[in-house]
Design a protein that fits this description.
Helices cover 44% and strands 19% of the residues. It is α+β, with helices and mostly antiparallel strands and 194 residues long.
Length: 194
């Protein structure tokens, strides 16, 4: 009996790549919520006389800021892109999109500020996106969107819908690892389909 080369086990799923928009939102909410939590908790524990009549308000602030901290953390964990055997999963806090590799025309890296020029954005959006302008994102061009554009706009940030083509913009921290993984899973699926 001949020695056969060892069989390489390929994972059926790639790693989870957190989406930058959700991380940015979480970071913007974290410090104000933590400050409110500490101040209101401290005033409730210390209980100075001038604040005695505001105890219900302080308790409400304490509970609300604690809930905001917990929710932003949980929602951050639920926002990621992950390659699967036969499709790309885009998981958002309230939406799950599975995009079959067969529906993908092409994928390409793009600079975020070129895809969405800062001068064309409202000042409030520019402020929110200031840490993302210099990032590279992956644009995935599709035959058609997985759902109607107006429906996707209800659940997706407008910055995840490609403005110049039919497709999605995937903003992840390690775009090279994500692109490599995406191309590998897509190629593997194409070989299986032949």
């Amino acid at each position: 009996m001949r020695n056969q080369p060892p069989r390489i086990e390929r994972p059926s799923r790639g790693r989870r790549h957190p989406l930058l928009f959700q991380q940015e939102l979480n970071e913007q909410n974290f410090w104000p919520s933590l400050l409110l939590l500490v101040v209101s908790g401290g005033l409730l524990a210390w209980n100075p006389e001038p604040f005695a009549r505001y105890r219900p308000h302080l308790a409400a602030i304490l509970v609300a800021s604690g809930l905001i901290l917990i929710l932003t953390f949980l929602l951050r964990l639920r926002a990621y892109a992950q390659c699967r055997e036969d499709s790309l999963l885009i998981q958002l806090p309230f939406l799950r999109l599975e995009i079959p590799y067969a529906a993908v025309k092409t994928s390409r890296p793009a600079e975020f500020y070129r895809t969405f020029p800062p001068a064309e954005q409202r000042w409030t959006q520019r402020r929110f996106l200031r840490t993302l302008w210099h990032r590279t994102v992956i644009v995935i061009e599709l035959e058609q969107l997985p759902r109607p554009r107006f429906w996707l706009r209800l659940w997706l940030s407008k910055y995840m819908l490609c403005p110049d083509a039919v497709g999605l913009v995937v903003p992840v921290r390690d775009w090279m690892a994500f692109r490599t993984e995406f191309d590998e899973f897509r190629t593997r699926r194409r070989k299986v389909g032949l």
